[in-house]
């Protein structure tokens, strides 16, 4: 079966406050997008890539794509619509595995990618990389006053990649779209169908580059991993 990689990269990255979308900011002389694609290619050189880019994107350079087989699709209003566009544009078999990975996570390692792939292949509900919550969790009422302490037992951070059979993932996201639900990851859409994706404990340094402070951190992580 073919492995399909879907990389949503159509976001504006507003929280970064930079003059271009964060995936085009440079870490150690390479744009974040190029780092992310290089990591994915190192783990899965034969995979097929579907890259979601904003239709008005002025920064993308196709020489950053190391895959032999790849296609570009337009982004949608939210991340889930970008991923749906990819699923609807590609010519996958229902039983093919699809792995969705945010472009904003360039520090993903080969070991985590391979562990997730194994789990997704053997678990019918699919799988996601995740990390047990380490901090004590507080809830406010929108007033920045600590009202409730949520028990952290059994709480995980959902990371990417997340991987599912093509038929399951497409059905799940189309269902979410039809009910007007905006999901922020694939696993939530799959859970809504009554499936329980496998949580695969991933590395803590699989950082999502979001705020300006994250740039130096991601650069240091990349340098340390390749040392
Ligand atoms: O902004 P945030 O980091 O949460 O976005 C997660 C991922 O989804 C990023 O890789 C971003 O480029 C992508 N995205 C997208 N289409 C959108 C919004 C976000 O592909 N409409």
UniProtKB/TrEMBL annotation:
Pathway: Isoprenoid biosynthesis; isopentenyl diphosphate biosynthesis via DXP pathway; isopentenyl diphosphate from 1-deoxy-D-xylulose 5-phosphate: step 2/6. Its EC number is 2.7.7.60. It catalyses: 2-C-methyl-D-erythritol 4-phosphate + CTP + H(+) = 4-CDP-2-C-methyl-D-erythritol + diphosphate. GO terms for biological process: isopentenyl diphosphate biosynthetic process, methylerythritol 4-phosphate pathway. It comes from the Bacteria. Keywords: Isoprene biosynthesis, Nucleotidyltransferase, Transferase. The keyword Methyltransferase does not apply. One of its GO terms (molecular function) is 2-C-methyl-D-erythritol 4-phosphate cytidylyltransferase activity. PROSITE patterns: ISPD. The record marks 152, 208 as: Positions MEP for the nucleophilic attack. It is an enzyme of class 2 (transferase). The record marks 15, 22 as: Transition state stabilizer. Catalyzes the formation of 4-diphosphocytidyl-2-C-methyl-D-erythritol from CTP and 2-C-methyl-D-erythritol 4-phosphate (MEP). Belongs to the IspD/TarI cytidylyltransferase family. IspD subfamily. This is 2-C-methyl-D-erythritol 4-phosphate cytidylyltransferase. It comes from Vreelandella aquamarina. The gene is ispD.
């Amino acid at each position: 079966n073919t492995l399909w990689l879907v990389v949503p990269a159509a976001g504006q990255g507003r929280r970064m406050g930079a003059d271009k979308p964060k995936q085009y900011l440079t870490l150690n002389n390479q744009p974040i997008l190029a780092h992310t694609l290089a990591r994915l290619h190192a783990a899965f050189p034969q995979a097929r890539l579907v890259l979601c880019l904003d239709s008005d994107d002025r920064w993308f350079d196709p020489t950053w794509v190391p895959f032999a087989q790849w296609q570009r699709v337009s982004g949608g209003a939210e991340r889930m619509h970008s991923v749906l566009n990819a699923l609807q544009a590609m010519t996958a078999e229902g039983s093919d595995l699809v792995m969705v990975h945010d472009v904003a996570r360039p520090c993903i390692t080969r070991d985590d990618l391979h562990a997730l792939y194994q789990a997704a292949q053997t678990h019918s509900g699919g799988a996601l990389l995740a990390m047990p919550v380490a901090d004590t969790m507080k809830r406010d009422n929108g007033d920045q006053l600590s009202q409730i302490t949520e028990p952290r037992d059994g709480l995980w951070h959902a990371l990417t990649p997340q991987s599912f059979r093509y038929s399951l993932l497409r059905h799940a996201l189309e269902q979410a779209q039809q009910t007007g639900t905006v999901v922020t990851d694939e696993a939530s859409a799959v859970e809504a169908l009554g499936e329980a994706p496998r949580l695969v404990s991933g590395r803590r340094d699989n950082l999502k580059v979001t705020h300006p402070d994250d740039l130096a951190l991601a650069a240091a992580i990349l340098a340390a991993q390749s040392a």
